[in-house]
Amino acid sequence: MSTPKPSGIELYTPQFYAACTLGGIVACGPTHSSVTPLDLIKCRLQVDPTLYKGNLDGIKSIYTKEGLSKIFTGVGATAVGYSLQGAGKYGGYEFFKHTYARALCGGENTASFRSYSTGIYLMASATAEFLADIMLCPFEAIKVKQQTTLPSFSTGLVDGLKKTIAADGVGSLYKGIVPLWCRQIPYTMVKFTSFERIVEKIYSCLPTPKQQMSTLQQIGVSFTGGYLAGILCAIVSHPADVMVSKINGENKNGQSMAQASRRIYKQIGFRGLWNGLTVRIFMIGTLTSFQWLIYDSFKVYVGLPTTG
C-alpha cells in the first residue's frame, strides 16, 4: 500500500472512513446518473425485448415519441439511491476489509494477510453491499417503475414515492430487496475482489513498483482494473438484474418473492434472463472503470493512497 501524502487523515480512523464514504458518494451518484439513458433502454428491453432494436434505436424512439427530457427518466431516483449505495458500499468495504483483516490476520500488512486476502475481500464487499442495498432499494423500486411503465407512472422521485406509498404502502418499496441482494451482492463481491486481484496482477507485471509510480500512473491502473472488473460484474449479476426489473415493473403484490421469480422464469425462460446483457456490459464496464477512477482520484486528493 503506497504511503499517503500528509493530510491529517490517518488510515483506519473515523476520518478515513468518512473520506472513503464521501468518495463513494462522489463516485457512484454522478456516474450512475450519467448513464440513465442506457439504463432506461436496458430496463425496458428486459421487460419487453421487442421494444427497441438497440441502444440508438431506443434513444431515438424515446426522443421522437416522448421528448428529450424522457431520455433521463428515473434520473432523480438514480442519483439519490446510488449516492446512498455508494456511501455504504465503498465506505463499508474499507471498514469491513480492515475489520476482517485485523480479526483474522492482525491487520492488512501482516504476512498471513495474503493467504486470507481473497476471502477477506469477498466477505467485506458482501457485508458492505448487504447494508448499502437497504438504502438503495426504495429508490431502485421507484426508478425501475418509472422506466418500465409507459407512460411513466410519476413525474419524478417525490411524486413516485407518494403514489407508491399511497397505493401499496411503504413495504412495497422493499418488495424487490431479495432479488436486489441477489443481483448486487455477487456483483459487488466480483467488483471489489476482481479489481483487487486484477490491479495486483497489473502492478506485478510492471517494471516499476507501485510506491515509485506517479499518481497519474496509479490512477490509470485503477481505471483499467475497474473496466475489466466491470465486465465480470455485469455477466455474474445480469440474471438477477432482469428479475429486479421484471418484479419492480409489475403491480402484483400478492405473491412471495419465490413465487414471483418462478412465474417470471416460466414466462421468459433461461434465455430471457440474458436480455439486455450487451447493453449492460457496456454500461457496467464504463460505470465501474469511472467509479474507480473517481474514487481513487478523490482518495489521492484528500491525501490517501489509491486502492489495491
Automatic annotation (TrEMBL):
Any one GO molecular-function label of the UniProt entry: phosphate transmembrane transporter activity
Subcellular location: Mitochondrion inner membrane
A GO term from the CC aspect: mitochondrial inner membrane
Superkingdom, natural source: Eukaryota
SUPFAM superfamilies the UniProt entry points to: Mitochondrial carrier (SSF103506)
Pfam family, one: Mito_carr
GO BP terms: copper ion transmembrane transport; mitochondrial phosphate ion transmembrane transport
Keyword annotations: Membrane, Mitochondrion, Mitochondrion inner membrane, Repeat, Transmembrane, Transmembrane helix, Transport
Solcar repeats: 15-99, 116-201, 217-301
Membrane topology value: Multi-pass membrane protein
InterPro entries in the cross-refs: MCP_dom_sf, MCP_transmembrane, SLC25A3/Pic2/Mir1-like
Similarity comment: family membership: Belongs to the mitochondrial carrier (TC 2.A.29) family.
Matches recorded under PANTHER family: SOLUTE CARRIER FAMILY 25 (MITOCHONDRIAL CARRIER PHOSPHATE CARRIER), MEMBER 3, LIKE-RELATED-RELATED, SOLUTE CARRIER FAMILY 25 MEMBER 3
Biological function: Transport of phosphate groups from the cytosol to the mitochondrial matrix.
Protein name: Cu/Pi carrier
Organism for this UniProt entry: Maudiozyma humilis (Sour dough yeast)
